[in-house]
């Protein structure tokens, strides 16, 4: 798909430099509308502090976001090890009391969903890739972008500080359901929960600064010729996720503020009359279910805030490494947008058995299953992209294939849980734990890993070791699959989640062996991540330098003036875009790829399809 | 090439695991067989899609692995194929949704002949209340709860006097008689869940929630709290004993009613308590209006 051939006499073609000598073409066929705005002035830092710490370059901010998020991810991983230690081998580690266990559960969940996945996809990949992929020199508000990261950094610092306050971090479950969250009887109901709420509020504020940047950069700062329907799906995914986040996070912010007020000054937003240890507390008239509505109005779009960037990135990776155009690009774009819009109408499927009016169940089951249709279309398009492709089975592609398997698996179990009456026996059991780890834990992590192997040469100029990469993949994929696939069956038995120990019921004793197995697999998967860390260190020290555009990709980030790209990204002149990023294996073309910057006059004999 | 083989073994292993798993749901002991059937249906349809998608992916890995001299197909869109897939998926999803909604309709409509049971939860325990001869439960209030009135029954409610109080975490049920579980909590969220009955619902402080089922298998079952309720959550267990009608009536006859309890207390003290309770109520109402 490339430019429309419009014969607009009276306009001087803007990118006719490369034309001289092209046989049988007129300068008009390469016409691209002139830029509407002058280029932005960039602030170039000169000191260490302005270049690497309080840096305004989106690429450095992206890396800062990435590393901070990975740090929280490692904390989350260690917490999961401790949990699995207790679940697989109860009593073996005597220091894990029930209080500790619930604190691990809570912090693991919150860290992984918000501080790891969200920050990594939007803050990390969003910052690094959006300006490069749309052909901008930087984000539109670099200073606010820098503030966004440091706000996130403070939020992480406060979150981590809660491990060290009296009473420890909150142990309320990552959903923070009142009233127990702020009452004694839940670990960390004093300082712990306050720090959590403050940290979340700062995260939302920081994210809003970044999110404005991502949205406005995509809408306003695309280079000449980069129409919306020529953007890589990565950008579509991150852009739509950002719009969702801007609409969803306020619900989290207000509920955090309201709960803080309930806790600190004794308001009763979420607190009904409560009898505690024989005493009637000074609360009355509040609604715990109101909190759940607010929380899931944020919480469900949050799932797609993580999933949509993953969808986008994996589409690009599959297309590049299958040497084939993404199948049904327009369908993919509309599926991303449609899923994003629908995700605001499904939140109460987390609340079928919450005690809300049961008649809501009909509505939310229907909307939830409707969302399965565009999601399924995306899956079909991924595998149809592989079909009749020319697939490189390298590390990046393995992660993509692993993503397809785990995502389809987790998506199917989502149909169980979304279908209101099927949810009744399964909700609050390990089936739910298995489902959401498969679909929004493992699947997005597969994409993150694929993206790391894919873009590492762009960011550092060196190629990661393939052999180590494959070991890393198989250990992670097989290990994670053997954690979560059998875990569904614990849910069928009826084993409830968030149980510190569970083995005195006769039908649950059968799960002992299974739990030991799952724990061992979890230790393995966690340890396997050190292969990646080793690979990165080794590559940075002795790895082989990557050639320019090592994967032969079409999108703009590989066509910068230098690799890794410098501040300002594209050297003297911004690139001019003539086509979508998926012109792979076009009949008649010399190479099996045609970069987005290639003007039609250079490839006149090819059978490029027009948009 | 070996990548395709490993992926194939993963899919094959998943199918075999599903067929031979010793871990599967417990024998059902209530009327909600429809839930199990819908799960089975979803397994066939969803599992079929999962296996088909993965096998197609593995086929592509085998068939279209990179070769220097091969060129991938160039075909950005195929409107017809996309349309067929959309329609087929929509139909499949609708086929799964329909039975789900039908059973949900049964779940929210409680049969008229069901017996109401008040399940009261707190951190961390359960107790139960059954209607007396009038067949109606008396109204309650959290602020009424004290040692002499463990369920917080409103003393001026005539229906409350004959209520049967089961101050134990074990409740007996009559076999083949629908029960409507009325859930309330005095502090935080809880959930009264018996895996064999399949059904569950949260107990929410401040409101009364409900669900129903019809036990159809005599026996003893364990009750689990299924909504996280603080550090004692995992230990918040109870019990249910489903009995045939005769043994159930016998058990019921042995239970204490609210008026029995009141009668036990000295008459004078009782009057004082009532006065105190009433003034408590007034205080609270005043506070709420403020």
Structural write-up:
The complex is a heterodimer of chains A (611) and B (290). Chain A has 611 residues and is an all-alpha fold. In chain A, 58% of the residues lie in helices and 1% in strands. Chain A has helices at 48-53, 58-88, 98-134, 142-161, 191-220, 233-264, 288-321, 329-342, 360-386, 395-418, 420-426, 430-460, 466-493, 506-509, 512-542, and strands spanning 275-276, 279-280. In chain A, helix 7 packs across helix 12 (430-460) and helix 9 packs antiparallel against helix 10 (395-418). The model of chain A is unreliable at 4-25 (pLDDT under 50). By secondary structure, chain B is an alpha+beta fold. Chain B folds into two domains: 2-66 and 76-108, no CATH class; 115-284, Immunoglobulin-like (Sandwich). Chain B is 41% helix and 19% strand. Chain B has six helices and eleven strands. In chain B, a hairpin with a 2-residue loop joins strand 1 and strand 2. In chain B, helix 1 packs antiparallel against helix 2 (33-63) and helix 2 (33-63) packs antiparallel against helix 3. The termini of chain B are far apart. The chains are: A mainly alpha (611), B alpha+beta (290). Chains A and B meet through helix 3, strand 1, helix 8, helix 9 and helix 10 of A and helix 1, helix 2, helix 3, strand 7 and strand 9 of B.
Could you state the CATH homologous superfamily of the largest domain in chain B?
Cupredoxins -  blue copper proteins
Instruction: Determine the most extensive contact between two protein chains.
Output: A-B, 114 and 103 residues
CATH architecture of the largest domain in chain B: Sandwich
Approximately what portion of the residues of chain B adopt beta-strand conformation?
Answer: 15-25%
Q: β content of chain A, as a range? A: under 5%
Treating each run of at least 4 consecutive H or I residues as one helix, how many helices of chain B?
6
Low-confidence stretches of chain A: 4-25
Q: Rg of chain A, please? A: 25 Å
List the uncertain runs of chain B: 285-290
């Amino acid at each position: 798909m490339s430019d429309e051939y419009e014969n607009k006499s009276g306009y001087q073609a803007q990118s006719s430099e490369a034309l001289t000598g092209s046989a049988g073409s007129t300068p008009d066929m390469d016409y691209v509308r002139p830029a509407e705005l002058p280029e932005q002035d960039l602030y170039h830092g000169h000191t260490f502090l302005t270049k690497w710490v309080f840096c305004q370059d989106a690429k450095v901010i992206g890396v800062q976001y990435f590393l901070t998020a990975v740090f929280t991810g490692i904390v989350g991983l260690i917490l999961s090890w401790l949990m699995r230690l207790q679940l697989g081998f109860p009593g073996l580690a005597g220091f894990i009391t029930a209080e500790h266990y619930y604190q691990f559960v809570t912090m693991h969940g919150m860290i992984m969903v918000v501080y790891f996945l969200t920050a990594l996809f939007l803050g990390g990949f969003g910052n690094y890739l959006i300006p490069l992929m749309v052909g901008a020199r930087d984000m539109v508000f670099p200073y606010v972008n820098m503030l966004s990261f440091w706000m996130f950094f403070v939020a992480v610092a406060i979150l981590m500080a809660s491990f060290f306050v009296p009473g420890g971090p909150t142990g309320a479950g990552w959903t923070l359901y009142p009233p127990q969250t702020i009452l004694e009887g839940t670990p960390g109901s004093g300082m712990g929960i306050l720090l959590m709420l403050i940290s979340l509020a700062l995260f939302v504020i920081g994210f809003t600064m970044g999110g404005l940047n991502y949205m406005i950069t995509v809408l306003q700062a695309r280079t000449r010729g980069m129409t919306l329907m020529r953007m890589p799906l990565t950008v579509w995914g991150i852009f739509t996720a950002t719009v969702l986040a801007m609409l969803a996070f306020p619900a989290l912010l207000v509920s955090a503020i309201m709960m803080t007020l309930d806790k600190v000054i004794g308001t009763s937003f979420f607190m009904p009359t409560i009898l505690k240890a024989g005493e009637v507390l000074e609360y009355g008239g509040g609604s715990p279910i109101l909190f759940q509505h607010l929380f899931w109005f944020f919480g469900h779009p949050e799932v797609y805030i993580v999933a949509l960037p993953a969808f986008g990135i994996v589409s690009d990776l599959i297309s590049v490494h299958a040497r084939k155009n993404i199948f049904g690009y327009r369908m993919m774009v509309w599926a991303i947008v449609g899923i994003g819009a629908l995700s605001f109408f499904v939140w109460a499927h987390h609340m079928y058995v919450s005690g809300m009016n049961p008649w809501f169940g009909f509505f939310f089951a229907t909307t939830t299953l409707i969302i399965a249709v565009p999601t399924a279309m995306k899956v079909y398009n991924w595998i149809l992209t592989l079909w009749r492709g020319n697939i490189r089975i390298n590390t990046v592609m393995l992660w993509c294939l692993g993503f397809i398997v785990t995502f389809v698996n987790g998506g199917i179990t989502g149909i169980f849980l979304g279908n209101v009456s099927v949810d009744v026996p399964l909700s609050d059991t390990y089936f739910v734990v298995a489902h959401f780890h498969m679909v929004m834990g493992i699947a997005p992590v597969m994409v993150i890993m694929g993206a790391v192997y894919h873009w590492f040469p762009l960011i550092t100029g060196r190629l990661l070791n393939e052999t180590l990469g494959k070991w890393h993949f198989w250990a992670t994929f097989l290990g994670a699959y053997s954690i979560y696939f059998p875990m569904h069956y614990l849910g069928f038995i009826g084993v409830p989640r968030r149980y510190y120990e569970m083995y005195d019921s006769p039908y649950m004793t059968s799960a002992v062996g299974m739990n030991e197995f799952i724990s061992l697999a979890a230790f393995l998967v966690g340890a396997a991540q050190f292969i990646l860390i080793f690979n990165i260190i080794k590559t940075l020290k002795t790895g082989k330098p990557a050639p320019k555009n090592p994967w032969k990709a079409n999108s703009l980030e590989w066509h910068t003036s230098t690799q890794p790209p410098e501040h300002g990204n594209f050297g003297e002149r911004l690139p001019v875009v003539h086509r979508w990023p998926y012109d792979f294996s076009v009949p008649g073309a010399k190479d099996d790829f045609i970069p987005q910057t290639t003007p039609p006059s250079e490839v006149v004999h090819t059978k490029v399809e027009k948009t | 090439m070996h990548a395709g083989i490993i992926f194939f073994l993963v899919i094959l292993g998943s199918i075999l695991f599903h067929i031979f798993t010793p871990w599967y749901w417990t024998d059902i002991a209530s009327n909600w067989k429809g839930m199990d059937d819908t799960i089975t249906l979803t397994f066939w349809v969803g599992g079929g899609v999962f296996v088909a998608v993965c096998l197609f992916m593995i086929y592509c890995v085998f068939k279209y692995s990179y070769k220097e001299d091969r060129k991938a197909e160039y075909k950005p869109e195929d409107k017809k194929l996309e349309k067929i897939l959309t329609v087929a998926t929509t139909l499949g999803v609708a086929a799964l949704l329909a039975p789900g909604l039908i059973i949900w309709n049964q779940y929210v409509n409680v049969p008229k002949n069901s017996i109401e049971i008040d399940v009261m939860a707190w951190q961390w325990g359960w107790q139960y209340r059954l209607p007396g001869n009038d067949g109606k439960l008396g109204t309650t209030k959290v602020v009424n709860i004290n040692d002499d009135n463990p369920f917080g029954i409103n003393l001026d409610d005539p229906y409350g006097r004959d209520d049967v109080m089961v101050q134990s975490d074990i409740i007996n049920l009559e076999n083949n008689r629908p029960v409507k579980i009325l859930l309330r909590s005095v502090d935080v969220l809880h959930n009264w869940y018996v895996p064999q009955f399949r059904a569950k619902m949260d107990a929410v402080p401040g409101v009364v929630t409900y669900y129903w089922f019809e036990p159809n298998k005599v026996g003893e079952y364990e009750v689990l709290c299924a909504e996280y309720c603080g550090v004692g959550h995992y230990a918040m267990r109870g019990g249910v004993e489903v009995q045939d009608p005769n043994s159930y009536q016998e058990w019921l006859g042995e239970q204490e009613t609210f008026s029995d309890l009141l009668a036990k207390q000295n008459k004078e003290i009782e009057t004082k308590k009532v006065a105190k309770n009433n003034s408590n109520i007034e205080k609270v109402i005043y506070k709420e209006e403020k």
